[in-house]
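agent: user wants the structure for 2-haloacid dehalogenase from Monoraphidium neglectum. delegating to structure tool.
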Amino acid sequence: MRAAGAFTALGLDPLLLDGWFSATLRDAIAAQLAGGGAAGAFVTFAEVCVLTNGAVDAIARGLVARAGLEGVVAPLLDVNMAQAFKPDPRVYRFAASQLGLSPGQCMMVASHPWDINGALSAGLRGAYVKRGEAYPSFLRRPEAVVGGFDELADLLLGKPE
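agent: tool returned. relaying tokens verbatim.
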């Protein structure tokens, strides 16, 4: 298994894989904002897909290409496939079903609070990538507020800060 080898190569216990794969839904926009290096390292451990309100061909493919993650991030999903717009909970449930997972096995990682709130309302886990704004107190709270994928990876792996 590719992920087990990657864990071992980094000196991590492959038994941690379940924790990583229980958090599989990611937002390519947050990946791009986090930077290709951090996002590239993150996808070594987690299955990463795109879920966008735009069209896959118009937005997602370009974001993935600019982040240097072609062939790594898949599937590329958009709201047209789900026949609803984010933050409608049906969109997030659709994405989980496309991954063959229950919503609770997925984590939406995004830099948009409304996106995290929508995912949480659909039963997904959430991590907010902070880009200058505090997470609004009136929305459902994500389990993590982080500055980037490196910080999220450490948090999910239980590494000390």
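agent: one observation worth passing along. The CA atoms of residues 91 and 139 lie 18 Å apart.
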